[in-house]
Design a protein that fits this description.
single chain; alpha/beta; 2 domains; 25% strand; binds adenosine-5'-triphosphate; binds magnesium ion
Length: 272
């Protein structure tokens, strides 16, 4: 398989463009620390499912926070629909590993929160919240608090909350990594079903090779810190995808190839 680091996207229908991002966190507010991102550029087509895969600690969360508008880069810009972002927006919702639910609100109150903040009347927002609660298979748990939910249920509620505000893009930072392996596989299949229906642009951060191959149209592989784009590959596997895909030779070939690349990045890190 050919892993081409400099592949250009020809389609002009781009949702997200990341242009030459550099990042170094300030130390004590004034001096600049070591580089975390070192000139990251890539773009994401409208309605596609793209994963950013990289070794542990390479700067993946830093990258997604910048794309979400939660963090300013040292240099470079992020464009959405051709316009430079100016901060966070409900068009780009983020799902984090730790679910980010309000502990004092029930599932339905969490899911309707963004709609309430937008001033939507109660009956309309409850209808929408219920639609997404059903979509993530949480019907019956509407009145439960996060403490009464399993990890998988919490992440389902977080997904429903992200979908309820009808964002253009969903940014996910290792959303399945706190889950047991069975729940993780189930939720991967569910997120694919949701994506097939909604066709949102999804950018997933992961360090899990198999997850990236199973879910994505495209995978951006990052180097070790300071992160650069080391490979940018198309995943030309048929859709819709089911668990059986994992036994497909083409799936295994892509995963093996990515593993080799990721392993060489990890081996270059003296901490491993
Ligand atoms: N707020 C911060 N201030 C200073 N340094 C930070 C800050 N956040 C992250 N870093 C540093 O930036 C580097 C990259 O961190 P980041 O969390 O982006 O990596 P990651 O790839 O998401 O890691 P992981 O695989 O553990 O999720 C690390 O060296 C980390 O210590
Ligand atoms: Mg991270």
């Amino acid at each position: 398989m050919n892993l081409n680091p400099n592949r250009q996207i020809e389609n002009s229908d781009l949702k997200i463009e990341v242009v030459d991002l550099h990042m170094a966190y300030p130390i004590n507010g004034n001096s600049i620390g070591a580089k975390v991102l070192d000139g990251i550029s890539f773009s994401v087509k409208n309605g596609s499912f793209v994963s950013v895969l990289g070794p542990s600690g390479c700067g993946k969360s830093t990258l997604i926070k910048i794309i979400a508008g939660l963090l300013l880069p040292t240099q470079g810009i992020v464009k959405v629909d051709g316009n430079g972002i100016k901060g966070p927006s409900s068009d780009r919702t983020v799902i984090f590993q730790e679910y980010g639910l309000f502990e004092w609100k029930t599932v339905i109150e969490n899911v309707e929160f963004g709609l309430k903040a937008k001033g939507m009347p109660k009956s309309a927002r409850l209808d929408i919240a219920q639609k997404y609660i059903d979509m993530v298979h949480l019907r019956g748990s509407e009145r439960k608090y996060p403490r009464e939910l399993s990890g998988g249920m919490k992440q389902r509620a977080a997904i429903a909350r992200a979908l309820a505000v009808n964002p253009e893009c969903i940014l996910m930072d290792e959303p399945f990594s706190a889950l047991d392996s069975q729940t993780r596989l189930l939720l991967q299949e569910e997120i694919l079903e949701i994506w097939e229906v909604t066709r949102k642009t999804i950018l997933l951060i992961t360090h899990n090779v198999e997850e990236a191959v199973f879910l994505s149209d495209r995978i951006i592989l990052l180097s070790n810190i300071p992160a650069r784009v080391s490979h940018d590959i198309n995943v030309d596997l048929p859709r819709p995808r089911s668990a059986n895909l994992r036994f497909d030779r083409r799936y295994r070939d892509i995963a093996d190839c990515l593993w080799q690349s990721l392993r060489s990045e990890v081996k270059h890190d003296e901490h491993f």
